Amino acid sequence: MTLARRVLEELYTVLESGRSVGASDVRHVIRMICEQPDVQLNDVYENILSRGSRKIVRAKNLSQKRYVDMIRKHDVAIAIGPAGTGKTYLAMAMAVASLQRKEVSRIILTRPAVEAGERLGFLPGDLADKVDPYMRPLYDALRDMMEMEKATRLIERGTIEVAPLAFMRGRTLNDSFVILDEAQNTTGEQMKMFLTRLGDGSKIVITGDVTQIDLPTHTESGLVEAARVLRSIREVGFMRFEAADVVRHPLVQSIVQAYDRAGRDRARSADVASKEAGGSG
């Protein structure tokens, strides 16, 4: 009864602030209060990151709030977790807000076009046409943050740059908010190259899902390596999202959890088979 009362009280507070409440909000509130009984929802929900052309962007749960706080605190922030947890979306909202507050002079959005491989040069059209399919998720998120006409103008001026990771080589990224998406598909060399582009007055956010690696077999993901190699550097922030942090349709969370269980089962089966093979030898 105490939990139910607290949930209702916090939801009434949200309603009184003029914000609508949906079924997903109820689930998020229950989880937040169970995780942190003294949480104040206003501290989470009133922290508006961006007032976009289509919606107001704000943290939806404690994990997202911790993520946002981590990005604010660190010049290099690395977020690992499943799709639907808001890793890239929130980073983009913070990038747009930083640009609007003139804290940075440009936004750079990049991701490895690993699916294209060496075939990129054979795709039809000019450079923009070739890379557009790989950058589209970033454009889609950007459209929520500002009017598309304004975004287009900023892209044409170079204030917002959307480009494949390979285009970062040899550059120093000063006074920029840089987001590397789908970082699980970088190699170790690419990740090192990208991290060493950091210049004065810049912030880097790296996001990825280590369960969705498309690199060739036996090639270690640059994101996995970075999480291991950089762990001891206090100035680098790390955030790990879990399936329970998914904020899309509730079914997405169940799907992610089902695949996680299947992956663990395969790993256990492979381990047992390896031990049995070793014993028989």
Helix content: 40-55%
Distance between the termini: 60 Å
Global morphology: globular
Order of helices and strands: HHHEEHEHEHHEEHEHEH
Largest sheet: 6 strands, parallel
Sequence of strands across the biggest β-sheet: 5-4-6-7-3-8
If helices are DSSP runs of H or I spanning 4 or more residues, what is the number of helices? 10
What low-confidence regions span 5 or more consecutive residues with pLDDT below 50?
A: 116-123
Mean pLDDT: 82
Q: Strand-residue fraction?
A: 5-15%
Give structural notes.
The protein is an alpha/beta fold and 281 residues long. The protein is 48% helix and 14% strand. It contains ten helices and eight strands. It has helices at 2-16, 23-35, 41-45, 62-73, 87-100, 127-145, 148-157, 188-195, 222-229, 250-280; strands at residues 48-51, 56-58, 76-80, 106-111, 160-164, 176-180, 203-208, 236-240. The strands form two sheets. A six-stranded parallel beta sheet has the order 5-4-6-7-3-8. Strands 1-2 form a two-stranded antiparallel sheet. β6 (176-180), α8 (188-195) and β7 (203-208) form a beta-alpha-beta unit. α1 crosses α2. The protein starts with a helix and ends with a helix.
